[in-house]
Every structure is written in C-alpha cells, then in structure tokens.
Amino acid sequence: MAKTTNQKTKLLHLYRMLLRQTDEDHPLTVPQIIERLARADIKAERKSIYDDLEALRLFGLDVQSRKGRSPGWFVGERDFQLPEVKLLMDAVQSSRFITQKKSDALIRKLEGLASVHQAGQLQRQVFVDRRIKVMNESIYYNVDKLHTAISGQKAITFKYFDYDIARQKVFRQDGKRYVVSPYGLIWNSENYYLVAFEHTRRELRHYRVDKMSEIVITGLDREGREQYPNFQMAEYGQKHFGMYRGPEVKVTLRGRRDKASLVWDRFGQDIILVPDGEDHFTVTLPVVISPQFFGWLLGLDGSVTLTGPKEAVSAYRHRLNAALEELPGNLANIKN
C-alpha cells in the first residue's frame, strides 16, 4: 500500500527534486533522477521520466536539458532568481525591526527559493556595524494583523509600552487601551510605524509597531475621513523627520544648487525648486518641526538653510543655543 501511495506522488517528488537539487551548473541525468526516486521507494522507467519532465514543462516549470560534458536536466528560470533572493536576504538581515529569531527563520525559508547548491552562496552576512534588533518578537504578527484591519477599514485597540533600564515593559496610560483607526504603515528610520486616527484626541498620530501589544481588531468602522479627507501616507512620512511629533509648518529652505539631490532624496522628486541666483535655489514645503528636522539641517553644514517663517527660524536658533548651553563649559569653549 505504501509503495502505491508513493507512486501517486512521483510527479510531486520529481518537481521538488528539480527545484531543490538542480540549477544550470548542477543538472541531473535521467539515471540519477531514477536513482533518487528509488530512494523514496518510487519505481520509474526512463520513458516515464521523459513524460513527467514534459508534463512539468507544460505545467509551467522551466525544465531544460543540456548535452555535452555535463549533460542532464535542470530548472532554468525560477520565480525568484538568485540575485533577487540575495537582495531579499540582505534586507531581512539588515532590517532592525525584525528580531534575530525571526530573521533566522525567514532566511531559512528564503533559502528554499534556490537550489541547495545556490544556497551556499546565500550564507553570507550583511555587515551592519553592531546591528541592533528589536526585542518584541510579536512585531511580525502585529504587522499582519494591522494590514487586516486596514484592508477591512476597522478600528483597533491596543496597549502601548516603553522599556525601562531593566528591559521591562512599562505601559503608557497606566495600561489603558488605545482606540485608533489605522490608515497605513510606514517604514521609517529603520522602524515600522502605524499611522492612525486617534479616537480620543481626534487627530492623526503614529505608533511604533514593535511597541504595540495585545492588538484587537474591533467591529467599529474606521473614523477620521471627515477631519482628513485628503490624507496621503507618503506626505505624512515626508513631513515627519524620524517620525517625531511636532507642529506642522510650511517652511522655506535655501540651498546650494549642488545639494538639490539631498532635498529631492528627502522630500521626493515632485517638489519644485525655484532658482535663486546662479548658485542657489529655494523651496517651500510643509514640515513637522522637531529636533530631528533641526538635526537634519545642522548635518548639511550650511549648504541648506532655513529662511522662514520667522517662528521656525526662531525655534531653530533657540534649539542651537540650548544645545550649546547643555555642553560642559570646557567643551563649549573649544575652538576649531
């Protein structure tokens, strides 16, 4: 009975064998295929193998044959080519929001997209100095649940927490549940954020997904469209530097022409840069004012400056002065 059952799965065994054990550099001859099937207690003859290979080709598997010094049959084109699998593995390994345990599990699954011979090339490290992984293992399932709520346009409740110095969870709002209507997810500053309409404050806010706990999808319909009828996820992410909150202000920046790409990289290719003399440009756009925005400006070393409005310039000057005052006296007076 077992032998009969195995015979019924012959085509499946052959399909898996070709995908996992062959590639362009490692074909299998028909005798080798027959031998491997025999190990699974499956009897096969040469003619039946040719028929099965043709059936798999008609089914859509890119079964190819080669003659010459290394003859045999192998899978050519795959759903994911080796460079694509490498790219996916690099993204998983270097991603901060995926825990180490989940990274290892995903990498093992990605290896299954290549042959066993190609998998050796995938055993490599993306060298990110002292890569810090999040501690919350449930983020993987949080993202899936949030996508379900977003597609179903339903509100959710959850608890939100931080870690103390002992790496213990400390829940905000004394553990009371947040009630929000999810609008979308943003991957920013190496973290996943949920952008949602907060029912109590009646405004859009964002939350780090790895700090969300006990997410429940409710039967409540999504709210907030009346308050934000023209909401655009991309614009929300562009305005928030490091996803820090603050007042939204339409600011004017003046930069050197050779720094235009820095502005386009940060705010998108659609913004319009207005020439300002031969060597400079200006641009006016909405930004959420925060220390991270000021830090971005400071890091450009004067090549892009904030010129307006006055309240934004004043806030920037105040932040710089406060930073100098926070330095120890012996450091604040150091001259270059």
Tell me about this structure:
By secondary structure, the chain is of the alpha+beta class. Helix content is 40%, strand content 24%. The chain has helices spanning 2-8, 10-21, 30-39, 46-59, 82-94, 100-111, 116-122, 139-152, 233-239, 260-267, 291-299, 310-326, 329-332; strands at residues 63-66, 72-75, 154-163, 169-171, 178-188, 191-198, 203-208, 212-221, 248-256, 274-276, 280-288, 304-308. Strands 3, 4, 5, 6, 7 and 8 form a six-stranded antiparallel β-sheet that branches. Strands 10-11-9-12 form a four-stranded antiparallel β-sheet, with helices on one face. A two-stranded antiparallel ribbon has the order 1-2. β1 (63-66) and β2 (72-75) form a beta hairpin. α5 runs antiparallel to α6 (100-111).
Give the helices and strands, then pairings.
Elements: H1 2-8, H2 10-21, H3 30-39, H4 46-59, E1 63-66, E2 72-75, H5 82-94, H6 100-111, H7 116-122, H8 139-152, E3 154-163, E4 169-171, E5 178-188, E6 191-198, E7 203-208, E8 212-221, H9 233-239, E9 248-256, H10 260-267, E10 274-276, E11 280-288, H11 291-299, E12 304-308, H12 310-326, H13 329-332
Antiparallel strand pairs: 1-2, 3-4, 3-5, 3-8, 5-6, 6-7, 9-11, 9-12, 10-11
Helix pairs in contact: 5-6
What is the subunit organization of this protein?
Answer: single chain
Structural class: alpha+beta
Shape by Cα distribution: elongated
The residue fraction in helices comes out at: 25-40%
Count, helices: 13
User: What is the overall pLDDT average?
Assistant: 83
Question: What percentage of the residues does DSSP assign to strands (E)?
Answer: 15-25%
Major sheet: size, sense and barrel closure?
Answer: 6 strands, antiparallel
Number of strands: 12
Secondary-structure element order, as H and E?
A: HHHHEEHHHHEEEEEEHEHEEHEHH
Uncertain ranges: 125-132
Rg from Cα: 28 Å
